[in-house]
Amino acid sequence: MGEVAGTGGDLEPGTLLAAYRVGLFPMGVGGGGAGPIGWWSPDPRGVLPLDGLRVSKSLRRSVRRYETTVDTAFDDVVEGCADPSRPHRWITPEVAAAYGRLHRLGWAHSVEVWDGAPGERLVGGLYGVSVSGLFAGESMFSRATDASKVALVRLVSVLHADGDPRRLLDVQWSTSHLASLGVVELSRADYAKALRRALEAPPPVW
User: Fold this and answer.
1) CA nearest 6: which of 21, 26, 30?
2) In this structure, is residue 205 part of a structural domain?
3) Which residue ranges traverse the bilayer (predicted)?
4) Which of the residue ranges 23-32, 37-46, 91-100, 171-180 would you say has the lowest mean pLDDT?
5) Looking at residue 38, which CATH number applies to its domain?
């Protein structure tokens, strides 16, 4: 699993952005968000090559079925990711507020998936932090078949729109589910190299 580089500190925008720039991200230590904030640096690290997303026939059908938007319902997406019924939940109101501040400052972004017209029924989404060419995915949720996968397809289309090979989509840890979509694992040393390249790249157009 991952490694905790340290605990404590605050979730102010400057602290969060400095952490992402050196390969750290915050996540609670202990279940239910009750423990202190830990600053994590997994080894290996899960990343999704932007030219390596695997889209099955069934996922292509889901992409056509749902509507997607970007940055239209950030707080609602975070709320979906923070659902207390989800296992290993750590997104507390304080964490949600911290990423809401980042969003209002232009650093955090969301992808929304709608069943019907945008604004009708939110069935999935994801959010994360964009620093130069790095997108650090924080969490995703799904209330309908393939909804979180559809959000990932839209995210990759945004990040890869201009084909810049330096951009990096960090998903923290690989799982069997994410591996089926094309996520691979990088050693910490290789991740550090990829991160340095990404930080030299321009951000995508959101």
Assistant:
1) 26
2) no
3) none
4) 23-32
5) 3.40.630.70
